[in-house]
Amino acid sequence: xxxxxxxxxxxxxxxxxxxxxxxxxxxxxxxxxxxxxxxxxxxxxxxxxxxxxxxxxxxxxxxxxxxxxxxxxxxxxxxxxxxxxxxxxxxxxxxxxxxxxxxxxxxxxxxxxxxxxxxxxxxxxxxxxxxxxxxxxxxxxxxxxxxxxxxxxxxxxxxxxxxxxxxxxxxxxxxxxxxxxxxxxxxxxxxxxxxxxxxxxxxxxxxxxxxxxxxxxxxxxxxx
Length: 224
Hints:
Layout: E1 14-17, H1 31-39, E2 60-70, E3 74-81, E4 92-93, E5 96-98, H2 106-118, E6 125-130, E7 134-135, E8 140-149, E9 162-169, H3 170-173, E10 180-186, E11 189-195, E12 198-200, E13 203-205, H4 209-223
Parallel strand pairs: 2-8
Antiparallel strand pairs: 1-10, 2-3, 2-5, 3-4, 3-9, 6-8, 7-8, 10-11, 12-13
């Protein structure tokens, strides 16, 4: 979700936490288990497909890479966007962006954008599959592309787009006890979103909005 004028999502109260929901089992979060899940997907229903629109423009197709780095445990690579960008500035995000006409498909978009934004070379990436599109309030129709990433890659952030790159344990994000619900009335509409704050060496990484919504859909996909 793009930041709204004079809007700080951290200051909006939490109205509930999903600690009552089961976490994804540890054995389901290993690389081979993920390969098998995407190869033989279950019947499932994504929880969040679209946010309430707050711009009036034609939809823009985009894709993000959800990179699952194969360390001792799987880690999700995320970025913090620079504050001067016109959309989603300063937010935690997956590497990704708008589709270009030369992109063959959403996977090509996600790989290209990940390489341009953080220097992640495609030869380190094993594509698992995609999740359903997620439409943001700013009219981006985003295809999340989930991938395993083997170690040995170099990170070279594009300083214009990326302020920081960090990793969060997948098991943390797949535990709904860390999924918090927020809501606010703005411009005559009720707007609701999730947040999943993560403390990283004393710094809070505030994961929220579209990024949190796509993580929630990944949770639903793996939890079935």
